[in-house]
Design a protein that fits this description.
Rossmann fold, 11 helices, lyase, binds fe (ii) ion, 4-stranded parallel β-sheet, heme biosynthesis, Ferrochelatase, EC 4.98.1.1, binds ligand L6N33NVT
């Protein structure tokens, strides 16, 4: 029997500093998130970041926490439940960090008699800190705990025409009747070093003005290219005029150079330039979460208002949007019907 494991990032068990600290400790000690040698990472994470960040992050989580729990988890569960209604195979949900582990998710499927799993990272773009870390951990767990299980994974779907159509429709529907001068596509940032590390050609990604628009094998794993491509394809589909939209990167942490331009600076600049009404969409996130509900919808809006801006509209993530559910269910059903091809 076949089964599906959807995997998202994860959240702390509660917005209390002790749970946030535990969650951040696991997240930031991942060598694909803070990619420096173990001893240096331990000193940075345990000796510096975990001394102050949990309190700060807990305060932010408290502002967005729902009665049912973390928005990211609740929205991922709604997505799972809606997909389960459309596909015959069992659909489980796991998180890369936190209590809903990948091991538990695989165990749940195995207990139902599943022998072949479709591992579905809920990220439209590939990144070492998201997709890759899920694939590597799932394989490690498989080898140790489920050696007979077959696992195949869904690659980044950033440029699939049907995904671009669903995303474009969601943006268009949400912004219908709203007067905005500029639409900002804000993606989660990563350190520039991550882009170079994921470059399979070892020479293409220069993070300059041209590498991401020059065809290359590197793009299969280039987060920056994939983000710019989503913006380009949506803009093409919705016939946006040049200059009315742009791309930026949010949520930087630490002192390394991260992908530019930064979202907060871009919002600031738009406000200073006299833009009064702006909208923002966050296509690196499938589910609304701390980074969209607090950093963008609250902090971003505050920056815009401070710079003289007026209306700040945030487009929700795809979450459990019906068209998105139909699309993921279609992909899953196609995989389930296909003859066995396992990685
Ligand atoms: C070195 C640090 C980080 C990298 C690299 C990184 C990449 C990355 N993250 C997401 C998605 C999410 N990140 C979220 C929260 C979050 N991210 C970092 C750090 C890095 N992320 C931190 C420290 C936090 C915690 C919150 C905070 O203290 O600011 C979330 C939200 C989780 C939630 O519970 O709501 C998401 C989602 C992507 C897509 C990505 C690389 C492409
Ligand atoms: Fe993050
Ligand atoms: Fe590039």
């Amino acid at each position: 029997m076949k089964g599906i494991l959807l995997v998202n990032l994860g959240s702390p068990d509660s917005p209390e500093p002790k749970d946030v600290k535990k969650y951040l400790g696991e997240f930031l000690m991942d060598e694909r998130v803070i990619d420096i040698p173990f001893l240096a990472r331990t000193a940075l994470v345990k000796g510096i970041i975990l001394k102050t960040r949990p309190k700060q992050s807990a305060a932010a989580y408290k502002k967005i926490w729902w009665d049912e729990g973390s928005p990211l988890i609740v929205l991922s569960e709604r997505l799972q439940n809606k997909i389960q209604k459309q596909v015959e195979e069992p659909v489980a949900l796991a998180m890369r960090y936190g209590s809903m582990t990948i091991k538990k998710g695989l165990q749940e499927l195995v207990d139902k008699g599943v022998k072949e799993v479709l591992l579905f990272p809920l990220y439209p773009q590939f990144a070492m800190a998201t997709t890759e870390t899920i694939l590597v951990l799932a394989e490690d767990i498989r080898k140790v705990h489920f050696p007979d299980l077959k696992i195949e994974s869904v690659p980044a779907f950033y440029n699939k025409p049907d995904y671009i159509e669903v995303l474009s429709n969601a943006i268009e529907n949400h912004l219908k009747g709203i007067d905005y001068e500029h639409l900002l596509f804000s993606y989660h940032g990563v350190p520039e070093r991550h882009i170079r590390k994921s470059d399979v050609t070892k020479s293409h990604c220069k993070i300059d003005g041209s590498c991401c628009t020059t065809a290359s094998k590197a793009h299969e794993f280039c987060y920056r290219h994939q983000c710019y491509e989503v913006t380009r394809l949506v803009a093409e589909k919705l016939k946006f005029k040049e200059g009315t939209y742009s791309t930026s990167f949010q949520s930087r942490l630490g002192f390394d150079p991260w992908l530019l331009p930064y979202t907060d600076r871009t919002i600031e600049r738009l406000g200073k330039q006299g833009v009064k009404n702006m909208a923002i969409v966050t296509p690196a996130f499938v589910s609304d979460c701390l980074e969209t509900l607090e950093e963008i919808a609250m902090e971003g809006q505050e920056i815009f208002h401070e710079m003289g801006g007026k209306d700040f509209t945030t487009v929700p993530c795809l979450n459990d949007d019906d068209e998105f559910v139909n699309l993921l269910s279609k992909w899953i059903s196609e995989w389930a019907k296909a003859t066995v091809k396992v990685s």
